[in-house]
């Protein structure tokens, strides 16, 4: 993979993970498809906010929307993302306590 292409892909992935809600959406979708209304309730965010985050994740190439009649189902764009998220979650990080950034939830 060309270096610039790899850097751009990692930047999109990093941007997606930089927001706690988008990270939670990706974790939820790693277990299976989801519907915006149900995910907004589950995560405690408005439907508009959920829609914005899903649009961002689509723009990053991480999720796809599958029309189902009048509803839309969202799922990971590639099942390998599920494995990548699992691998990331399995890594234990030891941050420097003096430089730990608070994570908003």
3D structure, described in words:
By secondary structure, the protein is mainly α. It has one domain: Arc Repressor Mutant, subunit A (Orthogonal Bundle), CATH 1.10.10.10. Helices cover 54% and strands 11% of the residues. It has five helices and two strands; from the N terminus they run ααααββα. It has helices spanning 3-17, 20-29, 36-43, 47-59, 80-90; strands at residues 63-68, 71-76. A two-stranded antiparallel sheet has the order 1-2. A hairpin with a 2-residue loop joins β1 (63-68) and β2. α3 (36-43) crosses α4 (47-59). The N and C termini lie far apart (35 Å). The relative contact order is 0.14. It comes from Cnuibacter physcomitrellae. InterPro entries: ArsR-like_HTH (IPR011991), HTH_ArsR_DNA-bd_dom (IPR001845), HTH_Metal-responsive_Reg (IPR052543), WH-like_DNA-bd_sf (IPR036388), WH_DNA-bd_sf (IPR036390). One of its GO terms (molecular function) is DNA binding.
Quick synopsis:
This protein has 105 residues and is mainly alpha-helical. The chain has helices spanning 3-17, 20-29, 36-43, 47-59, 80-90, and strands at residues 63-68, 71-76. Strand 1 (63-68) and strand 2 (71-76) form a beta hairpin.
């Amino acid at each position: 993979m060309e270096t610039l292409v790899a850097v751009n892909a990692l930047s999109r992935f990093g941007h997606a993970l930089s927001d706690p809600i988008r990270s939670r959406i990706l974790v939820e979708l790693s277990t299976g498809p989801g519907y915006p209304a149900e995910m907004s309730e589950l995560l405690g965010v408005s439907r508009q906010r959920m829609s914005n985050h899903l649009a961002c994740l689509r723009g990053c190439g991480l999720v796809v929307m599958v029309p189902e009649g009048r509803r839309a189902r969202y799922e990971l764009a590639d099942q390998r993302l599920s494995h990548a998220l699992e691998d990331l979650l399995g890594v234990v990080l030891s941050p420097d306590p003096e430089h730990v950034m608070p994570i908003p939830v």
